[in-house]
Automatic annotation (TrEMBL):
InterPro entries: Homeodomain-like_sf, HTH_AraC, HTH_AraC-typ_CS, Tscrpt_reg_AraC-type_HTH. It comes from Halalkalibacillus sediminis. The lineage of its organism: Bacteria, Bacillati, Bacillota, Bacilli, Bacillales. Keywords: Coiled coil, DNA-binding, Transcription, Transcription regulation. Residues 143-241 form the HTH araC/xylS-type domain. This is HTH araC/xylS-type domain-containing protein.
């Protein structure tokens, strides 16, 4: 039987009512955008963020078949991740092959636990492809600068110090970093510290003040200000929502 547009529309409206009635919801657009911003930079914190998405209920999109539902979610993820990698600049032809291969593997896997393991492998593979691409994208100076930032998050990192470590003039480093990364050095340092702060708030019992100190913020209040600026929540609100 071929459904009419009106019948399909009615089914969608009934589904909306069901979501509201049962208080089902997906992760927010802001959370999804944050994930892809991290992913496109090759930041491993993107994978940690996926754990937060798992806190949302998995809505059935498999006509009552749990395995089919999980497969459908994974195929949707393949489509989104493929587009994100294309936007970063990963070779399109390689991506088509990757996409086809993953979808075929998903369809040939009929065990839920195996699908969950396959999903983790998939996201790790995607991040690796982006990281490999970006390694070629960033020049040696910027790569070394990023490595230093990651190694010294708890310490003051003035531009003059970073420039001295990579043997260039501060003005040159500032211009080069902004050109290649799309952020100033200061913006990148702050973003990296905030992402580490998210991880620590979720997976440790350290106080906000201690986390701020570990991450090199002079005052807990400034850490809280920057955290809310980047995430839309205070550190306390974020930790509460993650428990």
């Amino acid at each position: 039987m071929v459904l009419s547009f009106e019948e399909v529309n009615e089914e969608i409206e009934q589904l909306k009512l069901k979501y509201r009635r049962e208080r089902l919801r997906h992760h927010s657009y802001e959370e999804e955008k944050h994930f892809f911003d991290l992913f496109k930079k090759g930041d491993p914190a993107a994978l940690s963020l996926l754990d937060e998405f798992d806190d949302y209920p998995h809505v059935d999109i498999g006509a009552g078949d749990e395995v089919r539902s999980y497969k459908n979610r994974m195929i949707i993820a393949v489509a989104f991740m493929t587009r994100a990698m294309a936007e970063v600049g990963v070779d399109h032809e390689d991506l088509f092959i990757e996409s086809d291969g993953w979808i075929d593997k998903i369809e040939r896997t009929n065990n839920l636990d195996e699908l969950k393991s396959l999903e983790k492998f998939f996201f790790k593979r995607c991040l690796l492809l982006v990281q490999n691409h970006l390694t070629g994208k960033y020049g040696e100076i910027v790569q070394n600068c990023i490595r230093l930032i990651n190694q010294h998050l708890s310490e003051p990192m003035p531009l003059t110090w970073l420039a001295d470590q990579v043997n260039v003039h501060p003005n040159y480093l500032s211009t080069l970093f902004k050109k290649e990364v799309g952020q100033t050095v200061t913006e990148y340092i702050t973003m990296t510290r905030i992402e580490e702060g998210r991880r620590m708030l979720r997976y440790s019992n350290d106080s906000v003040a201690m986390i701020a100190n570990i991450l090199g913020f002079s005052q807990p209040s400034y850490f809280s200000y920057q955290f809310k600026k980047h995430t839309g929540q205070t550190p306390k609100e974020y930790r509460t929502n993650m428990t």
